[in-house]
Design goal:
By secondary structure, the chain is mainly α. It has one domain (about 1-200). The chain has nine helices and no strands. It has helices spanning about 1-25, 30-50, 60-65, 80-95, 95-100, 105-130, 135-155, 165-185, 200. The radius of gyration is 17 Å and the shape is globular. About 40% of the residues are buried. The mean pLDDT is about 95. Keywords: Membrane, Transmembrane, Transmembrane helix. It holds the Pfam family HXXEE. InterPro entries: HXXEE (IPR025671).
Length: about 210
Amino acid sequence: MNMLRKHWQDLGLIIAFLVCIYLILDWGTLPRINSILWLSFIAILLHQFEEYRWPGYFAGLFNKVLFQSKTPERYPLNQQSAMIINLIIAYVFYLPPVFFPSVVWLGLAPILMGFFQIIWHGIFANIKAKSIYNPGLFSAIFLHLPIGIWYIKSAYEQNMLTPVNWMWSTIYFVVAVYVLIVKGNMWLRNKNSIYPFSKKQLGSYTKK
């Protein structure tokens, strides 16, 4: 478990690489929606790698800038909670739509979360940190955004987007954000956590 706790984002990068190979080999045979959903899954894995490995100092920004934590290495976010929340987001929220592409609301919800990442990293986090970049912004703009637009365009052309699908996907997206991101970080917070982030994951956001 300790190995996974320290390297879950690296495992995600390997999985993203393997999925890329799969897509390259089968691109001509896969339905377009399936291919886009696989790309969406790759996008979240690379997004998490950007946040927690390279440049990887999202944890420090989150704890110090957003929560003014006196112990940013472990509160409110820590290595354990970051692993749990991000694994659920990637493999429970983003991955299932790949296997059920006809369930449009299931696939559209992660697309909406990708757009949400652009707002969160590009506007909210940058304003709080008084910066023009923070880990996660690059993948949000150059992966989540174009993939999301492509998905909506393709689904629209195939008459898959209905008001009901928009409604259920929006509800599912909002619930996922609330449970996994908003409440998840609160439920798993621990001022005495024994799973602190590394200095690299804190960046310049230390106790000082």
